[in-house]
Each structure stands twice: as C-alpha cells, then as structure tokens.
Amino acid sequence: MFDTKIAIVVRENLAAWQKLNVTAFLTSGVVGASEGLIGEPYEDAAGNRYNALAIQPMIVLSADDETIKTIYRRAMERGVRLTLYIEQMFATGHDEANRATVRQYHPEAMNVVGLALREDKKLVDKITKGARMHA
Description:
This protein is an alpha+beta fold.
C-alpha cells in the first residue's frame, strides 16, 4: 500500500520512560519532515472531533548499542535524512538546547539512543537490519 516505510529504532537498554520519550520525539520529527503524512481529523458517532493521525503505520524497533551505531552509520553512508535523539538530550529541557547539544558532537562521537527514518521500504529494511520488533 505504501512505497515507503517508517522505522523508529530505540536503544534497548533505556528506561521505559526514556524509550517512550524518545519514540514520541522521533515520531514528531518524521511527521514534521514529511509533507502529507497526516490524514484528516477523526470523528466519533456523537460528533466529537479528534486530531488527525499519520496515514502510514510506523514500526518501532529495538537495538543494542552496537546495532544502533551500525544502523546510524548505514543511514549516514547512504545520505538518508534521519530524525535523531542522542543520550545527552535527556539532560536538556527544550528544542534549542537539544539542537545545541547535538551540534557539539561529530557523527562518530554521537551516543545515539534513537533514530527514525522514512524511505523506500527496501532501503529501510537494509539500514535497520539487526534491529528487532520492540517488545
């Protein structure tokens, strides 16, 4: 049904609240970078309206430290635009501070705890190889 695939990869050794927080932030990055990804508002039988959701499913994967580094490297080597979350961002409190934190690190020194991408299905599968469905 879709030519693209959205994958969110979260490092498996994070606390539950961190995994949820990272997933939420990464989802917002994918949605913000993808025009037309949000559908129409929902409405129930009583006429109550609800916010629109993404039109496309997202898969949430889990990876250990080395696998997430490999996934990050594969994406960078292929020039794929990523949504990124690094460990040091847990100590910040807002977007400007997050961007300043990321700006401090060269790619090889980033402690990536989560990333998300929306690309061709086959490419996403190649890049995220080694990650598992999040349990």
